[in-house]
Each structure stands twice: as structure tokens, then as C-alpha cells.
Design goal:
mainly alpha; 3 strands
């Protein structure tokens, strides 16, 4: 891993990529989503402050556990400008995200448990499909094996 001198206060996108392990394209994407920021030099090159390293690490860790980027952006927006997320920030946010992750784990467990049923039904009956129509929600408004409401037929000319 390339070493960045401590006296260097700004990083190029290549240096940030090498140090963080994130692809340059990912860094550009994170920037477009407001997760990290850069300034432009007179030659229109991006320069990132050193705190971007910690922000990228924070984003990647949150992504690995399944937190959506919009939720990560909201969390980072709560921090003062130029301040990097620290251990206390991660602890606070991970507590808040825990129930969301627990819900997703339960949903995935139900999906896994009903996957065989779905394959067995062949998706011929929305009334009984526990994946496409949990609790027969679609059955309240229509009957049959449709996911989309019918469109009126066009007249032929």
C-alpha cells in the first residue's frame, strides 16, 4: 500500500483509491452521491482532504452490512463539515441500523423458507404465492395469476 506523507494534506483521486482500496470510479460515484467531497485545482483535477479516507472506509463498511447509500449519506450529513466519523459515530449509527438489518434478516429467512414453495407452485396462482403476494394482498383487488392490472384492449383498424 503506498504511503502518503503526513505533510500532504490533500490527495489525488489515484492516491485516495490506492489508500482506500476503492476504485476511482467508485470514488467518483461516492462524490456524485454526496458521500465525499473534493475541490478542483486550476487544472480541474480533484483533490480530496485526508478525512476522505475515513469517510470512504465508513461508506464501504456500511455498504458491506447492507446499508443503502441514501441512509449512509444522511448519517454523514449529520456530521460537521470536515469531521470524520469516529468510533462513537459508528456505535450510534450501528445501533440505529440494527433494527433495519434485523428486519431484512427476517425477510431473507422467510424468502429462504418459502423458496421451495414458490418453485413448486410455478407462479400459476397469485392467491397462494407467498413471495409475489404475501398475505394475499393482490387477491383483495383482483383474481388470477396477474401481477399487473389488465389494460383495455385496443381496437383494430
Amino acid at each position: 500500500m503506498p504511503q502518503i506523507p503526513q505533510t500532504l494534506h490533500e490527495l489525488t483521486v489515484g492516491q485516495l483509491s490506492a489508500r482506500s482500496g476503492a476504485a476511482v470510479s467508485a470514488l467518483h460515484f461516492y462524490e456524485s452521491k454526496g458521500l465525499i467531497t473534493s475541490r478542483r485545482t486550476s487544472g480541474n483535477q480533484r483533490r480530496y482532504t485526508r478525512d476522505a479516507l475515513r469517510r470512504v472506509a465508513f461508506v464501504r463498511a456500511a455498504q458491506r452490512v447492507g446499508i443503502p447509500l441514501a441512509t449512509i449519506r444522511e448519517a454523514l450529513a449529520e456530521l460537521p463539515e470536515e469531521r470524520t466519523p469516529n468510533r462513537d459515530d459508528w456505535a450510534r449509527l450501528s445501533r440505529a441500523w440494527r433494527s433495519e438489518l434485523d428486519d431484512r434478516i427476517r425477510q431473507l429467512g422467510r424468502l429462504r423458507d418459502h423458496l421451495t414453495d414458490c418453485i413448486g407452485c410455478g407462479c400459476l396462482s397469485l392467491e397462494n404465492c407467498v413471495l409475489s403476494n404475501p398475505d394475499d394482498v393482490s387477491g383483495e383487488s383482483m383474481a388470477g395469476s396477474r401481477l399487473m392490472p389488465e389494460r383495455p384492449a385496443r381496437e383494430c383498424s
